[in-house]
Write a structure and sequence with these properties.
With about 160 residues, the protein is mainly α. The chain has four helices and no strands. The radius of gyration is 32 Å and the shape is rod-shaped.
Length: about 160
């Protein structure tokens, strides 16, 4: 599980780093490495928020709310970045960055869905194996009972001498 507090700190530090570097550089293309860290931190924070909400504990829920608020602040930050790219005349670069980030998020969602489906299949296989073991056990017990009952009936017939003749 992703620690919600470290995910929150990661996104906040990534935003601060991008803001700091964007003030010192002349060309927006030199923001590439820090923008990569920013989008990685954002993705991690999103996953942490989802996991924290799923866990259901109150402390995790509080962290999830904090992360959601930080993610909401990132939307405003991304608008500032978009403006920065517009001013530099590189809006196409920004659009490519956003498209790639969306594609990565979509791929992560697909992977999560595949993992969930794999867990569901594994759980189903385990349940089917337990069901089969239970059925085999019942059949064996029935056969043992039938064999034992037949043996007892044969012994009764031998000792009493009257078994339907």
């Amino acid at each position: 599980m992703i620690d919600p507090i470290s995910a929150l700190a990661g996104i906040q530090s990534a935003v601060a780093l991008v803001k700091k570097i964007s003030k010192t550089v002349d060309d927006v293309s030199s923001l590439g490495p820090v923008l990569g860290k920013y989008f990685d931190a954002k993705s991690t924070a999103t996953k942490a928020a989802v996991e924290a909400k799923r866990s259901g504990t109150s402390s995790s829920m509080g962290a999830a709310i904090q992360i959601e608020m930080a993610l909401d602040q990132t939307k405003q930050f991304e608008k500032e970045l978009q403006l920065l790219f517009m001013q530099a005349g590189k809006i196409d670069v920004w659009n490519n960055i956003k498209a790639r980030a969306a594609a990565m998020d979509l791929e992560a969602a697909r992977e999560a869905k595949k993992e969930k489906e794999a867990r569901r299949r594994k759980k189903k296989q385990i349940f089917e194996a337990l069901e089969m073991a239970f059925a085999i056990t019942l059949i064996i017990l029935f056969l043992i009972g039938a064999i034992w009952g037949s043996y007892e009936m044969i012994q009764y017939c031998k000792t009493t001498g009257s078994c339907g003749r």
